[in-house]
Specification:
This protein is mainly alpha-helical. It is about 75% helix and about 0% strand. It is built from 10 helices and no strands. It is globular and about 70 Å long.
């Protein structure tokens, strides 16, 4: 009994220390960026035209939002419908299903720079799109597809079988049960996966540099070269001439990620509460 109490005490202390360290690192990171970048956020940084004097982040911010939306437009339908097939229609021990799952898990662990190299070789060079918004969009869509498939499938599996059995008992068919009962119940979990995907897109640098390029301009056609916020921050930092503006860009990037997470969480709660 004494040994058990000692172990519990040590475990509690270890947990609290881990929490304090985690919060401390987070607070230090955010505080450091705020101290370095906050004094350098000025109106000229939000000009719609970039030049070497204002190093405006507005073109990069707009490009980030647009490229994120287009990437989701491609990957979310493919990912969710693939997850529906794997969860609701495919046979459990089917070799094809097992192969798809192994492939999805493998693709999830591939470094983003590999996706960037693939996008550069296939979309930029082979298809002749050049360093463009379109090449970056398709590369990012492929990169987040395994994440959306995996999280959507887990969300669908988490829906209780009693919902399915009740629907079948009332005479509903498979298609109606899946799209009227199962999918709506899984939407909060699916949205969580989409939030993770958005976070990965917004913070991505390597894959975007190799496919979209680094030109700071607002895209007016699909074959224009653009830069995202993360690439903008990397460019300012690597040049060594605008380090402080790079920290200011990091603050804006943090705000964008927080706002996206808050909005998505609110939508998920609203949908979950209405079910």
């Amino acid at each position: 009994m004494k040994n058990q109490n000692t172990f519990e005490l040590i475990a509690k202390i270890a947990i609290r220390v881990a929490v304090v360290i985690t919060l401390g690192v987070l607070i230090f990171l955010v505080g450091f960026i705020l101290v370095k970048g906050l004094p350098y956020i000025k109106p000229s940084m939000f000009s719609f035209t970039y030049n070497s004097d204002n190093v405006s982040l507005m073109p990069a911010l707009i490009s980030t939002i647009i490229i994120t939306l287009f990437s989701l437009l491609i990957s979310v339908p493919l990912g969710v419908f693939s997850a529906i097939y794997l969860s609701e229609y495919a046979k459990k021990n089917n070799k094809l299903v097992l192969l798809i799952r192994v492939t999805t898990e493998t693709l999830s662990g591939i470094p983003s720079i590999v996706y960037g190299l693939f996008g550069m070789l296939f979309f930029v060079t082979f298809l002749g799109w050049g360093y463009s918004f379109l090449a970056g969009t398709f590369t990012l869509a492929i990169m987040i597809l395994p994440l959306i498939i995996r999280t959507s499938e887990e969300a669908l599996k988490a829906v209780s079988d009693t919902y399915r059995e009740g629907s079948f008992g009332l005479g509903a068919g498979k298609l109606r049960t899946v799209f009227k009962i199962v999918v709506p119940s899984a939407i909060p979990g699916i949205l969580s996966g989409i939030i993770l995907a958005v976070g990965r897109i917004v913070g991505e640098t390597a894959a975007v540099i190799y496919t979209s390029g680094t030109v700071a301009q607002i895209p007016t056609n699909l074959l224009m070269s653009v830069r995202t916020l993360s690439v903008h921050m990397y460019a300012l930092s690597s040049e060594g001439l605008h380090m402080n503006e790079g920290y200011a860009t990091a603050i804006v990037l943090l705000i964008v990620v927080v706002l996206i997470n808050m909005l998505s969480s609110r939508i998920a709660k609203k949908i979950g509460g209405s079910l």
